[in-house]
What does this fold into?
Amino acid sequence: MADRVRVRFAPSPTGRLHIGGARTAIFNWAFARAMGGDFILRIEDTDPERSTKENVDVILNAMKWLGLNWDEGPEVGGEAGPYFQMQRMSTYTEALERLKERGAVYPCFCTKEELDAKRKAAEDAGQAYEGYDGTCRDMDPSEAARRIEAGEPHVWRLKVPHDHGPIMFNDAVYGPTSFPANVMDDMILVRTDGSPTYNFAVVCDDANMGITHVIRGDDHLSNTPRQILIYEALGYRTPTFAHLSMILGPDGKKLSKRHGATSVEEYRDRGFLPDAMVNFLALLGWSLDGETTIMSRDVICSQFSLDRITKKDAVFDETKLSWMNGQYIQKMGAAEWVELSKPWLARAHAEGYPYVHTAIVPSSDPNAPADDAEAEPLNDEQWAAFEDELAACPAFYEGLYPLVAERETSLAECESKLAYMFWGPCVLLDEKSVNKVLKKEGARADEAIAACREVLADEANSWEAAVLEEKCRALAEPLDMKLKNLLQPLRVAICGNMVSPPLFESIELMKREDVLARIDATVAQVF
Ligand code: GLU
It folds into this structure.
């Protein structure tokens, strides 16, 4: 029977979960799920400066936000733990002992100065430095033992067999891959201070944790032959390797800060949904059938396979991600939308509330993304006021969803797009809209507004979008006015802008007295 599949995601906590790391995590998670195996999270925290508790939490929170539940790892534990490398030091010591017994390592007493001098000499002679020259490799064991005994600083190096042929492995993505062994120098496994090097620790962990498949970025491809040599020296079976291609920005260059947001947290804060992120990232280098773009977690987790991973570089196209996010927003339904949009709705609420005057304001781009990095966080009082209102009138908030559901590409957009819904009896009149619509020569905007106001003020008309719209539209004929000239002024008078979500659906969600007050305030301001 084939081994139970065990895969791991092994981030070094450096501050944020980057898009590339998240993609690696998703591929491992989906593969484990598809194979009925285990997904392990291991924290590679050997860099004490960067591996703070805070940085670890950032990774765990991003994983949780994405919904990538791990079967073993921090917080959940597991039989192969601990899952922090710093807590596994004794396992590296044991592995070193095993290598000593097998005669696969030797102590090296060469100092940094000696090694630097050799490197420099090679460079000065115009030759490429070929790595460690094996000075200590054949030292008499009794001399080595004596020098260790005397406390002389030393590292432990792998004794790469001189007769080793090419190091070959069948990468699940790149196919048969081969590296010449004779260019591998005797790499350091354990440093002078007793700490393991990256390659040594990773091999020990993967072996001790029973990892069957190592799925990781191809920046690790050149480490793989070295790691295979370590597996062989330990006498352990090598896992299957699958190296994932690079992620490029739309300009064909490696994805970096230059391209904008590069971490999962940034996308979360910009109103992207975890489902959309997982769907989008799963398709960076993998495909279900080459066509399907929208896929639930269930589909990804049941259908994921290594043989559909491409070695072509993947392109990160944020326009596609936005589109996909929009698709998920359209499907999610009002209650969930309100729940997930709270950070931005609370902001719109807090920003709307203090307006007590109607005014004409300079035009801004209503589609500009909310810049949360610069926005002041809401204080407790503002949050409490929002939560109270949400609890008191959930129908209002759920009613906002259809106003934007079809058009939003990120949850954050509701903050600016629905700002007008929170102005109570006031309006912030967009200057351009005032000039183009309300002050338009010969368009009789004042007459149009007055006529519509009568419809809205008439208590005999029930306060429903369809009824109010029909009655207002019916005014076009007696007034001998184009529909556009009739309704656009009303839109500006109430929503402040000539581009807004559906007008009458918005009106239905407002209080009649507020709508009338807005109209009156606009008229007083403009005409
Ligand atoms: N900790 C390594 C990194 O963050 C990953 C090691 C591995 O996957 O082998 O790049």
About this structure: The chain has three domains: 6-85+247-326, 88-244, 332-527. Residues 10-12, 44, 202, 216, 220 surround glutamic acid (CB under 6 Å). The mean pLDDT is 94.
